Amino acid sequence: MAEQHQQGKAVQTTGHAWDGDLQEFNNPLPRWWLWSFYATAVFALIYWIWYPAWPIADSFTKGIGSVTFERNGEEVTTHWNTRAELIEEMQRGSETLKQQAYLEKVAAASYDEIVNDADMMAFTRSLGKVLFADNCAACHGVGGMPAQIGQFPNLIDDAWLWGGEFEQIQQTIVGGRNGFMPAFGEVLDDRQVDQLAHYVLSLSGGNVDADKAAAGRILFQGQEGGCHYCHTASGKGLESQGAANLTDAIWTVADVPGATDDRGRIDAVRKVIANGVQRQMPGWSERLDPTQIKLLSIYVQSLGG
Ligand code: HEC
Ligand code: HEC
What we know:
This protein has helices spanning 2-6, 31-50, 82-92, 94-108, 111-115, 118-135, 137-140, 166-175, 190-203, 210-221, 227-231, 262-275, 290-303, and strands spanning 13-18, 22-25, 55-56, 59-60, 66-71, 74-79, 177-181, 277-281. It has 305 residues and is mostly helical. It has a domain at 126-303: Cytochrome c-like domain (Cytochrome Bc1 Complex, Chain D, domain 2), CATH 1.10.760. Strands 1-2 form a two-stranded antiparallel sheet. The chain has a two-stranded antiparallel ribbon with strand order 3-4. A hairpin with a 2-residue loop joins strand 5 and strand 6 (74-79). The termini are far apart. The mean pLDDT is 91. The protein binds heme C (HEC) (2 copies). The site of one heme C (HEC) has 29 residues, from strand 7, helix 9, helix 11, helix 12 and strand 8. The site of one heme C (HEC) has 24 residues, from helix 7, helix 8, strand 7, strand 8 and helix 13.
């Protein structure tokens, strides 16, 4: 104690002494430290009020902060959370602005301008891919190739039932298509159907019985079969009817590639002639806007080689 007095008021201690001379200073906290401490307390308080913070039963304090974003064309405001903030950022962020600008550019551009512009084409492909996955892949397969021949046409080969020009593909998507061929199993007998199948396969260079193919040709080109009305005399098909080209060895309904031998290939074609075809492509004019359909048309066309 005596020593402390000698040092004057310079150093205060708590007044306790251990082991004889071990004392504890009682210095005031440094100012910067104290203010930092208050600041963190104030920060925590604001944080709790603004953001979701404390658990209460099976919920939590939501905070008064909010995020506003767009969902299905309507503005939605929700309490602050990272998911909503991400959505908001994606909608207003610079990427979106870029995308928005490109969309407007593509909407205003002609088909020729788009396909001849590398940037617009890259944009069309990337957005087309997303639109295709969302709307079309359920039927046409991811990337445009269905798992099986028959139900849905393959869009990545360069054979088009309804035409591969931009306007034709656009029309297919806008209005949908009705692929129809009558069932001939009721009007022709098995022998005739067999002869027709031989003729049809001969058109694409298949290995067939020449006599049967010759008989099938007469049916195909004549009144009785009437196949030429839709498939034309050359067998190349008619886009206005969606009638398949039978000469290109590309099969959209008859599972000829799935057959292992000549007999199997004949049977696959017989089946289609006997049963006919009824396939429907839905129209999209109510579900997609004109720019999306434009993008998709160009994307789908680019799939087909
Ligand atoms: C419900 C199933 C289904 C969905 C979904 C669907 N399609 Fe189709 N699509 C079909 C069928 C079936 C056909 C064949 C019609 C026919 O036989 O003539 C077809 C035909 C087409 C054709 C014509 C092919 C040709 O050879 O001419 C195009 C192009 C096409 N679809 C694009 C699309 C696009 C793009 C979408 C998405 C916006 C889409 N389809 C969604 C079932 C579907
Ligand atoms: C009313 C028009 C019409 C007539 C008549 C018609 N077809 Fe078709 N045919 C079609 C259409 C349309 C398709 C394609 C259907 C689709 O893919 O949606 C088709 C598809 C086919 C296919 C399948 C081709 C493939 O790529 O898988 C064969 C084979 C065929 N027709 C043979 C015949 C034969 C043989 C006759 C005569 C007995 C005939 N068609 C008469 C409209 C017709």
